[in-house]
Amino acid sequence: MSQVVLITGANRGIGKGFVTYYLARPNTTVIAAVRDVLSEQAKQLHTLSRGNGSRLIIVFLDANSATSAAQAAAEIQIKHRIDHIDVVIANAGVCNSWGPVLEVDESDMYSHFEVNTMGPLRLFQPMAPLLQKARIPKFVYISTQLASIGGIGQTPTLTVAYGISKAAGNYLVRKIHAENEHLIALLFDPGLVQTDMGDRAAEFLGLDAAPVTVKEAVCGIAEQIDTAEKSTTSGEFFSYNGERVAW
């Protein structure tokens, strides 16, 4: 049976890295969920190398929408005849508010929760029936070290809305782990990655560039997804390099 992997935020950065990685594997169906299926970034996904027997499906999914994930789930089943999903990677995220607690705007808090917390919830609920039909279903949340409450103070970043909304996302995925006996729920910090978001953070920290390549982050996480088990790694918070991250 072909492995089926769904990735949100798939048109660029880490999301595109996951599409590239899984599509290169044999007998893999990659569902790339993007906000604009007609964009040049989305069209370029069709040029990626494919393993023997692998195929790419591109669907519309907007993490800001309360209904698009359910619509995507219906399209996947009806139009593309997908009857199960093995791995869902909730990668779509936003970080565009910078400043200390005293300066954070309430509207920025809401917009970050909309994507970083509600987005994964809206994704999991309609995809759960498809995951339940997989032999070893896995739901993966791309989090961040900045969501670590125990790590506050270790990194001088001013990403209040981002960190809080991702910490709430961590709770959600931990709860998914606890409530679903046969589903593996995983949380990963990809590190400071060479993406638009990562490079902005690196500039703030006075670095010339983010230290982790997209390939390093994706390969490190994908290898852990492959070997993840319910009794050992499910519901736990890990870095792309396999190190545990403090809650």
UniProtKB/TrEMBL annotation:
Keywords: NADP, Oxidoreductase. One of its GO terms (molecular function) is oxidoreductase activity. The keyword Oxidoreductase applies. SUPFAM superfamilies: NAD(P)-binding Rossmann-fold domains. GO terms for cellular component: cytoplasm. The keyword NADP applies. PANTHER family: NADB-LER2 (PTHR43544:SF7), SHORT-CHAIN DEHYDROGENASE/REDUCTASE (PTHR43544). Belongs to the short-chain dehydrogenases/reductases (SDR) family. This is Uncharacterized protein. It comes from Aspergillus versicolor CBS 583.65. The lineage of its organism: Eukaryota, Fungi, Dikarya, Ascomycota, Pezizomycotina.
